[in-house]
Amino acid sequence: MRDVTGRLMLLDAASLYFRAYFGVPESVRAPDGTPVNAVRGLLEFIDRLVKDHRPDRLVACMDADWRPHWRVELIPSYKAHRVAEEHAAGPDEEEVPDTLSPQVPVIEAVLDALGIARVGVAGYEADDVIGTFTARATGPVDIVTGDRDLYQLVDDGRGVRVLYPLKGVGTLQVTDESWLREKYGVDGRGYADLATLRGDPSDGLPGVPGVGEKTASKLLAEFGDLAGILAAVDDPRAKLTPTQRKRLNEARPYLAVAPKVVRVADDVPLPDVDTAVPVAPRDPAALEALAARWGLGGSLQRLLTTLGG
Known about the structure:
By secondary structure, the chain is of the alpha/beta class. The protein has 13 helices and eight strands. The protein has helices at 13-23, 37-53, 69-74, 103-114, 126-136, 177-184, 188-198, 213-223, 226-233, 242-250, 252-262, 284-294, 297-308; strands spanning 8-12, 57-61, 83-85, 93-94, 117-119, 141-144, 160-167, 171-175. The strands form two sheets. It has a six-stranded mixed sheet. The chain has a two-stranded antiparallel ribbon with strand order 3-4.
């Protein structure tokens, strides 16, 4: 990977195109009647993000494997409820709306023609790609995602924050450590422990029975981190209720493996890509053909104007 300096913006691409798909009417269609609401919505999102935040570098991070086998081996229920079809030789197929799936290759082709870096790595989720870019960055990082799991990367000292879309991308929750402490009582590093204890039904992570967000926050405030909480379970003098002690003790098998599942990887083998925000399309002819074929119209033109500015 080339050296990443300046302000880096990392897009959780799937999170954003899902939001675009559900936020833009399906009546937005190509000349042949094919829905392109996710394509045009994502272009509008990127336009607004670049215009408002002026990153020096930009990467669309992709899910090459949305349910990595190494995570499933540790917790078999991980994202199991989202599997449409299992594949022994490759990534399982995720349940995706019928009219969204055909738009994903179009999104990829448009990003490539524009020259916006697009990175997915076999065996890893977009979160892991984001985690690795963040770990290697030498300047500030803006992570744009609708996935709270990435709060664990927030680090005021390094200038890493999460921009969480509340409505489109025009209204973003700027998540820094002060916001995390006020909301959850933890910093970025502590958020992964909180998420492990609390669990997440949307990801098939059971958590510790009876330990919700507030209890997890209190336990972390009292004992520091997950290791401290487990040490307290073994210490009869520690301030745990009998029920908490019992539940945490019974959850040890889960707590032994869950942190590796919850924490994003920071050692993904990233390809050598140019992350600079393009000022002109990498492949103008391909982009012109895509714009005509899919009727990208004003959405693409506005983005090109912003990039060129």
